[in-house]
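Dear support,

I submitted the protein below through the web form. The confirmation email said the job was done, but the results page showed an empty box. After a refresh the structure appeared. I'm attaching both so you can tell me whether what I see now is the final result or a partial one.
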Amino acid sequence: MILCLATTLAHVALVFLHVAPASTVSKRFSPQINAWVYPFFEQNWRLFAPEPDSVNRQILARAAHTRSDGSMKVSAWFDLVAEDNSAVEHSVFPSHTAQNLLRRAWTSYTDSHGGDDNARTERAVMMQKYLSNIAADRVAARNAGTVDFIQLRVVTLPIAAPGAAVGNRPPTPVENRLLPWWKVTTHGK
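What the results page shows now:
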């Protein structure tokens, strides 16, 4: 009971320091506050004024496993977004978290890394690990096997403007980004 109360008070204090205007205390303890808040308790206005996506993203993952003879076995590409969409469509009460976990992880990754895949800050390293853990967990659950390395490919397709003429051609990808192979621990944990 006391541990629960202490954790609740610490959580409220850390989130308050995160959203409040900068102060001496929040500046001094910024690394600890950010470690607690990101990525699970991030505060922003998108909940109240969401900005709709102008693109569709197909996030694909594949895994690699080192065999006993030292050779690598690489899995086929697995569409993580299609799995999310299917889970939402076939759920009577779809979860907001399930709908946005992967999308927000990718957005946070691109915000922290920019156009390249070099992590220059602690937050960028954390977002890379977060994204790779999500992908590794899903691929390991699907393949029921060990995942040593994970690679993501993100294909971004534009969404046609309302009333635009739709031809027989599929939209041309705006971006086809292939991320490097990332080492993961057992099942992305």
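Response: this is the final, complete result; the empty box was a page-load delay. The longest strand covers residues 55-66.
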